[in-house]
Write a structure and sequence with these properties.
- The protein has 231 residues and is an alpha+beta fold.
- It contains four helices and eleven strands.
- It has helices spanning 31-34, 53-68, 90-93, 96-108, and strands at 36-38, 44-47, 73-74, 81-85, 123-127, 152-161, 170-171, 174-175, 183-187, 193-194, 204-213.
- This is Fe2OG dioxygenase domain-containing protein.
- Residues 1-30 are annotated as: Disordered.
- Residues 20-30 have a biased composition (Pro residues).
- Residues 1-11 have a biased composition (Basic and acidic residues).
């Protein structure tokens, strides 16, 4: 995704001979293309530097504050994992920053006017050292509250803290190269996802967002940056 450096090619004439032809250079990727990576399989997409440094700082303080107050609950799916469903108690967890980020995610991912997921909804996730996400999917199931049969569960996560590569998401066996401030999106109902045990002294922290989309939904490159970026 990074731009390529270009070496200077100098034409030299020897003994009055003609200079060799100047080699053609591949064009550098556009700034827009450098901001995202869409998997050839369309299983996932990464948007680089989605969060501003100040947004990431505020989200980190928010997550740690909820954790210290006991407002992030132990996740029964695995050890050293804590979470909160923002929409189950918005008076405790929701705020202007999260509302703004929700709108920006929808604009960036072309999900405006799409129904929000009602199973997980918006989430705060903290994984302590040694914790990990087991391999699973988040498919909708018949008869369960909030589950929408016939639709897919699309999720995106923004990276607030990634203290070690072991905390990177693994989607269908492929570890995504995400860094702090990045966003990744995937079809959680269709693609098995997991992490390795976290090998760090600090926790891994991400904020998640979800939507219910038709099975035909495809991830697309983000629109013009001015429509969604806060940078």
């Amino acid at each position: 995704m990074a731009g390529r450096t270009r070496g200077e090619w100098r034409q030299r004439r020897a003994g009055g001979g003609a200079a060799p032809p100047r080699p053609s250079l591949a064009p550098a990727p556009s700034p827009a293309a450098a901001r995202f990576l869409l998997a050839p399989s369309n299983r996932w997409m990464i948007v680089k530097r989605f969060l501003t440094p100040e947004e990431r700082r505020q989200l980190l303080a928010k997550a740690l504050r909820h954790f210290q107050r006991g407002e992030l609950l132990p996740n029964p799916s695995g050890p050293a994992r804590y979470f909160a469903k923002v929409d189950e108690d918005p008076r405790v967890y929701d705020d202007a920053l999260l509302q703004r980020l929700t709108r920006r995610c929808e604009q960036c991912l072309r999900l405006e006017r799409v129904a929000h997921d009602c199973v997980l909804g918006r989430t705060i996730s903290l994984i302590a050292p040694g914790g990990y996400i087991h391999r699973h999917t988040d498919a909708y199931r018949e008869g369960l509250p909030g589950h929408r049969l016939g639709l897919e569960h699309c999720r995106c996560n923004v990276v607030v803290r990634m203290p070690h590569p072991s905390g990177r998401p693994i989607i269908e066996g492929e570890a995504l190269d995400v860094e702090e401030g990045d966003l990744w999106v995937f079809m959680a109902s269709r693609s098995a996802h997991e992490t390795q045990p976290l090998q760090a002294q600090d926790p891994r922290i991400v904020f998640g967002f979800g939507w219910s989309v038709p099975p035909s939904h495809k991830f697309q490159p983000p629109p013009e940056e001015s429509l969604w970026s806060a940078h």
